[in-house]
Amino acid sequence: MALGVVGMYLLLAVELTSLAMKRLPRRCWRWIHLTSFGSFWLATIHGVTAGTDISNRAMQLAYVAVGGVVLFLTLVRVLTDKRTSAARRQRAPVVQP
Hints:
The chain has 3 helices and no strands. It is mainly alpha-helical and 97 residues long. The chain folds into 2 domains: 1-51; 54-91. Helix 1 runs antiparallel to helix 2. It is flat and about 65 Å long. The mean pLDDT is 83.
């Protein structure tokens, strides 16, 4: 049960910082928004362990499908971000004094 509560607090922090995005430093906002991944997994674990619908085959399929999609897209984002950063560094103009 506690995992669901922690996940909800993380989701609340993400939402509140979204509303105050223009007033927060970009780096702070980004770190807080990275907690949304943790919030998702905490809510998923909460649903699997404390939910009454886990015996339903459709819910089991939904948990596996949604978890798989989030995991896949997270991996794509992480791998794409590294490649993009390396490409930007290579194309960055060299400033000569």
